[in-house]
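>> received
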Amino acid sequence: MNKKLSFGIKTGYGMGMVGECLAMNTFYIYFLYFLTNAVGMNAGIAGTVAMVATFWGAFTDLLAGAKTDSSTNIKGRRRPFVFKAAIPLGIVTYLMYTDWSFIPNSVKPAYFLIVAMIFWLSLSFADIPYMALGSEITDDYEERTSIRGISNVLNYAGMILASSGTLTIVVLFSRNGEIYDTAAWSKVGLLFGAIILAAYWVVVYVTKGKESPYTPAAEKEEKQGAGFFKTCVDVLKIKPYRNIIVYTICAYGGVLLFTSMYIYYLTYNVGMTEAQSATVMLVYCVMVMVVSTIFGKIKIEKRTVVIGATMIGGVGMMICHFLNLNAIGVYIMFFVFALAISAYFVQIISMVYDVCDIDEFKSGEGRDGVIVSMFYFIGKIVGGIAMLAVGWILEFSKYDAMALVQTESTLNGISAGALLLPGALMVIGALVMFGYPVNSENFAALRKAIEARNAGEDYSTEEFAKLIK
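>> returned
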């Protein structure tokens, strides 16, 4: 395997993050907003629809991970899945933001649930193989961080379009310049679906020949021992992986809660217009792109970056809850959040790739798909809970989508859901990572032992013993 990759290949691989980010973040940021403010669905029902669909997506992630690991396709285990799944993903993105007039209001929750479930199924089979491919195109500790840095810059290029661009494009396509025009939302879904399809196909093209060598079916059958669920249990026995999972439950839960609520916070608590909110998100995305570039290049240990950035983000957001933020305060709030989210998408996912190598040493197999899919499974479960929580926070806070001004109790509920609770969860996540044992030195020793074992040479586990307990 070539450990060093050209900038062009890294960038081409990172284009998949444009597809993932545009698909996933448009859902997390605007699907509830679209259902409540454009379709006119009850907030509690809309939150339930989003939660069920996201939970379904968690299980399809596991299915996709198992399928891609066991694939015997001569063209590779990962790339063919990405190529094929991107097609229905692009189509269903259009359907998910289309409010068909012939569907009765009483049936619309079922319609949007079905298309959202197809959306997550398609995304699983495009994105899990894509993410697993990232651990195969290089096994270098620093190179993986570099790839994640570039990928997250492109991720937030997609985020600019998903967050800042969505409402702007809706207004542009709208007949009356209003964000409630369902026909305009449908056009946005069509546009975004085409971009998502193209982004994943770029990955398939540029990574040709970089995937791990094909293993013939006969050899693969000999290697396959334990069943899928036993494999999951085995993987969870890896201590660094457990640290990452608990961090994801806490810190990423806070990230998704904020992501799904900030549009309500900016609109009602701060009083920003759609154009002002779009500007804030544009600046925020640029912040993340800059921070991600720095995080991808600095030689500080991954654990240190994650703990520091997540702690600053969490404490900062909790403080902001108790302040009456003006425009400058909003930008400061988004900056501290940018630190935390950059640490997640650069360092944490790079850490997941490192876990793949630990598992390879322990099991002697390439179970990257299962490891990545379990990580995403947890993320989707957390995402579903977060979206349900948003729906019910709005419901219990007496949110009225038709009211231009919300009550004081509603504003307090929105602020607590958007800032206080996410901040607390991020602080807990940062504390969990103090127990993460992997660093550049013991990982280098691990890789050296794997190479020695593969070559039939002697090796010692003394330097990385705590990684394989």
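>> Residues 216-225 have pLDDT under 50 and may be disordered.
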